[in-house]
Amino acid sequence: MATETISACTGSNLLQPISEITNLPLDQVNFVVCQLCALLTAVWFRLYLHPSKTSPFVRHVVATLLGIYFALFCFGWYALHFLLQSGITYGIMILTGVEHMHKYCLVFALGYLSFCQITRVYVFDYGMYSADFTGPMMVITQKITSVAFEIHDGMARKEDQLNQGQKLLAIRRMPSLLEYFSYNCNFMGILAGPTCSYNDYIAFIEGTPYRHRDLETKGKVNGKSRLNDPSPNTEVIRKLAT
């Protein structure tokens, strides 16, 4: 079974010996190993590239490059769809303006995802591989559309038109290309998610996890703001246990 899937796997063949030993398809071995590597890399990322030790730029670059590498390792050239989808929607946001970009981004992102899914099923062999590259694309599509709507809320709508949740998630400035790709393709969520808000991700990268959540309506910082760095240990153990 494992031997038959070597030609079916579009990703790396480096772990083929493990696939043969475990009698599991190579694409599944690649996916599981990359998920475990992403978890271990996150520990290194937190300890050695902590916001107190390096700049947000470095954290963005490392998170993005590692995410792209893991995607290429698992899905091969199909991972280029992740970059293409993100790159085109960023161009749409820049060229169309904040008034209507959320609509165009929604239509394109869903349309591109549908195109990839249809061609995967009807043009290419549906049973060719079980590690479906459109799975990560679904997560990226959620991120693309949520960012577009949050930018529209933060830059095109008046404050009194937003509810409390929209005010919290609203993005007040256009993300840079690096920030946008880092959010969509970072190694911590590119393979299986989950989706988080753009503001939460940027706060994590910059080391200010409570800043935007402690801002009052008038932009003043709440005096009860928590400044201590939250520990992820409990949540990581809980997720691994389930």
What does this structure look like?
The chain has 242 residues and is mostly helical. The chain has one domain. Helix content is 60%, strand content 0%. It has helices at 16-22, 26-48, 56-75, 80-96, 101-123, 134-155, 164-169, 177-185, 198-206, 233-241. α4 (80-96) crosses α8 (177-185) and α5 (101-123) runs antiparallel to α6 (134-155). The chain is globular, with a radius of gyration of 20 Å. The two termini are 28 Å apart. Mean pLDDT is 87; it is low at 1-7 and 216-226.
| Integer average pLDDT | 87
Helix content percent band? 55-70%
DSSP strand content? under 5%
Number of strands: 0
Number of helices, counting only DSSP H or I runs of 4 residues or more: 10
Number of domains: 1
Q: Which regions contain 5 or more consecutive residues with pLDDT less than 50?
A: 1-7, 216-226
The helix/strand series, from N terminus to C terminus, equals HHHHHHHHHH
Structural class: mainly alpha
**Could you tell me how far the N terminus lies from the C terminus, measured between alpha carbons in angstroms?**
28 Å
Determine Rg (CA atoms, Å): 20 Å
CA-based shape: globular
Largest sheet: none
List the helices and strands and how they pair.
Elements: H1 16-22, H2 26-48, H3 56-75, H4 80-96, H5 101-123, H6 134-155, H7 164-169, H8 177-185, H9 198-206, H10 233-241
